[in-house]
Model the fold of this input.
Amino acid sequence: MQTVTQISQVRTEVANARKSGQSIGFVPTMGALHAGHISLIETAARDCDFVVVSVFVNPTQFGANEDLEKYPRNLERDVEICAKAGANLVFAPAINEMYPEQNLTWVDVDKITTRLCGQYRPDHFRGVTTVCAKLFNIVTPDIAYFGQKDAQQSVVIKKMVADLNMPLKIEVCPTVREVSGLAISSRNQYLTEEEKQDAKLIYAALKKCSQLAKQGEQNCEILIKEMKIVLAASSKLMPQYIKIVNPKTLADLETLIDGAIAAIAAIAAKPGKTRLIDNIIISTPT
Amino acid sequence: MQTVTQISQVRTEVANARKSGQSIGFVPTMGALHAGHISLIETAARDCDFVVVSVFVNPTQFGANEDLEKYPRNLERDVEICAKAGANLVFAPAINEMYPEQNLTWVDVDKITTRLCGQYRPDHFRGVTTVCAKLFNIVTPDIAYFGQKDAQQSVVIKKMVADLNMPLKIEVCPTVREVSGLAISSRNQYLTEEEKQDAKLIYAALKKCSQLAKQGEQNCEILIKEMKIVLAASSKLMPQYIKIVNPKTLADLETLIDGAIAAIAAIAAKPGKTRLIDNIIISTPT
Done:
């Protein structure tokens, strides 16, 4: 496995892989790789011949008061993880390589970016879509892999790819969880032991919602109330939103639609200073 | 030469060309092809093995009060012209093929789109950049060809390609003119004979500016005043803007920078209801 820092090197390596008929898989990351990323890389390695992982803490997706500076960075460890998981190329550019001059161009997805996390992180998705467009243009993958944990991100990226006719497929892989149910996230590193205990309630609430829906409860107001009750078990866990939304438009639902992907239940909550998000796909009884 | 209407057909044809090692040239147009387009297609055919021409009157780049409905359309004639000029594939999609569902994604270039024409056509460049991003993703050309006549468009597209790391080169070809000097445009069809006479003054003014600059005049206020005097020869020709701008940032210049591409002098003017634009590259004495 090779690690490169220059866009031109990625283009050369990918062109060589293509020449020998290989398919290209791509896992964009901000590093601080964990079991969630590993599962994405392993899935890519299973599906594609040549797997590129990017490690880039993208400044344009952080808000002014967010954790850009303290976001965990450990390239050496990340490179080892990529190699073990079956990647063929790590692309770890400096900020200057990705933004060599003043960036004036933004890829903006309307509407669905203003919902859920978009209300609390106004420029976040614009940064995500723009850097993904850039990375897709650099790596030119056949398939790019994203985690279901960032549900809104996946929906937004899929819409961008469809609207702009980008020549790749987006594959969304299941959320990887700790034994406790806590969704694995690079930001879990920020949590104290006590905060980690409280954070478990997020998935507990989502599971409660999913179970009630499977039992036939279709009223979203009731489902949200039930999630609130679970989260209320800790006085320190501060929910930011608790939502049940249409899985494509991310608009709030009043009643569950019938089906295997009837809705997404999504929670953002802070067990202290760290903001965590999680979600679950809601199915109705078959 | 083949004419297709489906995105999937373009992808198949381009993939076949690529498989046999051919380079791909692309000329995006709104149809109503004229000598300017022909020169782009011929240049593409000279430089590239496989030339794609798109013919699509893109609704998202027309303002509410602009000429979307009456914009000239004649696909049969356009296809003939493409074949003669050396194109290999014409892509003439219906609106539904390009915008099959509600489009939420926009590629926006800041700052340089607000200058010159951007002041008078607020959403125009957003429509242009978005449809070009879509077309580039569909055709995946090595080189795309644009005309210098739409100077701001070329600067904006180049900035988009650079900022988003799009894997293609933008080639800007010289403006093709009638014997009178009038820049050839699909919208010239709208002009009466009298309006055409007045319209000639636009290029006359630009040439005056270029000559004075070559003789050493560096004061843009003076150069603009001289262009105004030329345009004033017709009382019916209404200038919208007369500008001398930095060729990269499109910001107004007070004094010419030294060099072969010291500035762009640009004019928008209406000899009646039709809005015409033209420009000239200004060099200082060597």
